[in-house]
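Q: What would this chain look like folded?
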Amino acid sequence: MKKTAIFILFICILIPNIYSQDNITAQEIIQNVQNVYKDISDAKASFTQTVKYGKSKAQSSSGTLYIKKDNKYRIETGSQTIVTDGSTSWSYSPSKKQVVIDNYKETGNTFSPNKYLFQYPENFYSDLEGNENMSGKEMYVLKLRPREGGYVKSAKLWVDKAEWIIKKIQIVTDESTTTYNVKNVQLNVGISNSKFTFSPPEGTEIIDMR
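A: My prediction, written as structure tokens:
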């Protein structure tokens, strides 16, 4: 599930701007964002994803994300479904009629939706890289760097100045650069734990790596 760990996605919500933005630091931005997210138990959202491998043409796709605390998430696109209950993970390809089952692996450099939504990744340094206008809104751009070597080499977060929400994330590895945008967010909707398990359709080839 190494590759699935980078399917990183963030939930966007609206709150009034109650913090001063003058001379702000990266750590203060992160704390303000966490103050927004701390009461979220689960969420559902649609997303778009763009992946670029080296000099090849970027590939785009869209899908739906379900997320719940304690390392539970489900990512559905037209070409793949990725599910974990925090203990077991499933990666299903409908075109291949194949599912790969493995133990969920959490390391210091794992880039999971839960880690970046519900807790600041302590294994990364953060810096305020600058400001950027995105779709008519002003954003802080944060650069994250891992404290130790690993699969994720760096990441960027775009945080809305007026709302303290993350609108965009970019993840860089040795293999690719992946960018996510999140929309149509529903928060604390009471997603059942059954959403975070997977039953392969009849006729699916099962590859069990546990």
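The CA atoms of residues 126 and 144 lie 5 Å apart.
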